[in-house]
Specification:
elongated, 394 residues
């Protein structure tokens, strides 16, 4: 398991493979990331209100649990499918022994998949807890106010970044991988830990840049995983776990006493405790990708040459397309004139061939008229000569 974890987190890079993944795989993955984000926030903000039992101390109808369970299963299937798709694309480009060094789905990836599911479930159950105690008004104000404050503060940054990243910045530099880096950050924002682990190991830049004008223009760079792990730990996981624990330990009213025995709230507290451990794990394990600048520069130089060659081929192809369009866009009048000139030339050639053929027949007839009488005269002379010789012998 330790070796599998090391292989999952280790930085891997191949210029040709990364370029292929950036151009053909990352864009549809980014679209699906936003689709799953919208589905999650609908479940988070809308579904609990729809399926809430409408009285103080009531929980939720079973349809809510079925909806979230369906979302969790489908999202997990998609995440595994994307990982295997990336793995298969790598194996198409490289020999198997080299492809396995870039990505080989192992046991630690399964662990990351469950960690992401627990992290998202924790946020969902925290919001459910907030709605349950909010139904009773100010009866639970000492739990309601801090729980609401931490929930709102934890959701501001992810939602703001998701909206901000809907528009990708255009870049003319084909050596960068903006979509791959964006998906890496989106995966940490949406707690898709399996996809985050896979894509993070491919990124040259896995940090978020803050305060760019400070520190002599260097600013502050924070690794995606540590950033989200820190925010989740201090703004959601540890505070919400503490509130859940206090809610279970202390009680004020009979309604409070009845609620603290509910299985849903007990599960929510244990999920919050697991989420605390996951956030601490991200804070410790997520680091800036380490690579050898010399080896990477050699790889990038090879990629630059490939990009230059690809641009040259694209330019040649564009010239061909331009010439073809120019030919197709010729004025109809010119096309008609050209066609008529070709027809006239063809008719003239046919007439010339016919004239040459007629001249050939005439020459043959003249030769026949000259040769035939000559043959007849020669035969008559020979006949007369033979007749004269016979008469002399007699």
């Amino acid at each position: 398991m330790v070796h599998a974890k090391h292989e999952a987190f280790a930085f891997k890079y191949d210029p040709e493979v990364m370029r292929h993944l950036e151009e053909f795989e990352m864009k549809p993955i980014r679209i699906m990331m936003y689709f799953w984000s919208v589905m999650y926030y609908i479940l988070l903000f809308v579904a609990p209100w729809v399926f809430k039992v409408p009285y103080c101390g009531g929980l939720f109808y079973n349809e809510l649990y079925l909806c979230y369970g369906a979302y969790a299963v489908l999202n997990a299937i998609w995440e595994v499918y994307v990982t295997y798709r990336i793995q298969n694309q790598i194996r198409k480009k490289l020999p198997l022994h080299k492809a396995k060094k870039l990505l080989d789905f192992n046991r630690w990836h399964v662990v990351e998949l469950f960690m992401g599911q627990i992290a998202r479930l924790d946020t969902f159950m925290d919001f459910m807890f907030l709605i349950v105690i909010g139904e009773c008004g100010w009866e639970f104000k000492w739990f309601l106010i801090p729980a609401t404050a931490f929930m709102v503060s934890n959701l501001i940054f992810p939602i703001f970044q998701l909206i901000k990243m809907t528009k990708m910045k255009k870049t003319s530099n084909e050596l960068t991988m903006p979509y791959m880096e964006a998906i890496n950050f989106l995966s940490f924002l949406r707690e898709n830990m399996l996809l985050a682990t896979v894509v993070d190991s491919f990124c040259l830049n896995n940090t978020k840049h803050f305060f760019k004008k400070s520190n002599n223009g260097a600013g502050v760079r924070v690794v995606f995983g540590r950033l989200m792990g820190g925010l989740s730990f201090f703004l959601q996981d540890f505070p919400q776990f503490t509130i859940h624990a206090c809610f279970k330990i202390f009680y004020v009213t009979p309604t409070h006493y009845a609620l603290k025995k509910e299985l849903l709230l007990l599960i929510s507290m244990f999920v919050s405790g697991a989420a605390v451990l996951i956030s601490l794990f991200n804070l410790v394990m997520c680091r800036e990708n380490d690579f050898d600048p010399v080896d990477l520069e050699a790889s990038l130089q090879k990629r630059r040459e490939e990009v230059t060659e690809r641009k040259k081929l694209a330019s040649i192809e564009a010239e061909k397309v331009k010439a073809e369009l120019a030919r197709q866009n010729t004025k109809p009048e010119e096309k008609v004139k050209f066609k008529r000139r070709m027809q006239d030339a063809f008719r003239k050639k046919l007439l010339q061939d016919a004239a040459n053929e007629e001249d050939g027949k005439t020459i043959k007839q003249n030769l026949t008229a000259i040769v035939e009488p000559a043959k007849e005269s020669k035969l008559m002379n020979r006949f007369k000569l033979n007749a004269t010789r016979k008469s002399e012998k007699a």
